[in-house]
Amino acid sequence: MLESLDQIGEREILNRLKKFMPVGQIEDDTAQLNPFGKEILINTDVLVDGVHFSNETTSAEDIGWRAVATNISDLAASGVDQILGITVGLIAPPKTNWAWVNGVYKGINKALEKFGGKLIGGDCSCGNQKVLAITAIGTVGQLRLHRGNALDGDFLVASGPHGLSRLGLALLLNDPLTKNNEITYHLKSKAIQTHQRPIPPLKALQALLNCKPKDLPWRAAGTDSSDGLLEALHNLCSSSNCQAIIDPKNLPKDKNWPIGSQWDSWCLNGGEDFELILSLPPSWAQSLVKTLPSSQIIGIMQSGSPKIIWKDGKEIEKNHLLEFKHF
């Protein structure tokens, strides 16, 4: 019987595709090339109507902005220095309104003006569904972040709060769970803004570079939390062959975040937070949280078979009903 992609799942699909690439190439969200002696980072993300965006929650300009932000977030999570530009592959049904396409590219342009880089080309074609495929290109900076660089004894740091984008989506969809009196007006506004106009963690990366203790080498592990905090931690653990020990009292939440298991689940599994999740030497981690007020130490790394564990020793199981699935 032939296997379908939804039966295999994204992680196993990527695992099977490794044989077509150089060793280690697929361990991060970006590829690294060295043409003419200059280290280049390249990243591609695909946004699909009905999967990553919809007219119900996202305007055309927001879609264009989000398309750029998601790719630049991956570059930041690899230690980008300069963002050179992006190419755009656009697929749309023939009856798509030009106003929608124009709006998407306005959003793309606004994001590039904000974060850097130029629109340098792409392609377009007709199809049954709206799709944006973005390829972003940048140069490697002083610190090359890899998921596989974590070591036993590192502190785990989140560059900012998690769950806001998931809350923003729920608010836009009028989810009954959002009829909670504990959700302040400020939190609602912040969550919707975070969902529709995410900010890639370029400032967090710069803070990380600026605060490194002089006696430490340029060694750190990192990824972004676009697919959720637990997925980011899993990727660090799997690539570094380590275990993450997480303190439930230090989950990275907004100061106005409601209390309860549902809200903890959104923090852990919500996705599209676009924060850096870093594994750092303790002194560097402590320096970062002093430099970057939004950042927080959430746990430590220890040697052992890859998994995520609460501080009390209980293994953290991902909520598969809440985590984002590509297939």
Q: What is shown here, in short?
A:
This protein has 327 residues and is of the alpha+beta class. Helices cover 33% and strands 23% of the residues.
Can you give a write-up of this model?
It is a single chain. Helices cover 33% and strands 23% of the residues. It is an alpha+beta fold and 327 residues long. It folds into 2 domains: 5-140, 60s Ribosomal Protein L30, Chain: A, CATH 3.30.1330; 147-310, Phosphoribosyl-aminoimidazole Synthetase, Chain A, domain 2, CATH 3.90.650. The chain has a 6-stranded mixed beta sheet, sandwiched between helices. A 5-stranded mixed beta sheet has the order 1-2-5-3-4, covered by helices on one side. Helix 4 links the parallel strand 3 (80-92) and strand 4. Helix 3 (60-76) runs parallel beside helix 4 (98-115) and helix 5 crosses helix 6 (185-196). It is globular. 42% of the residues are buried.
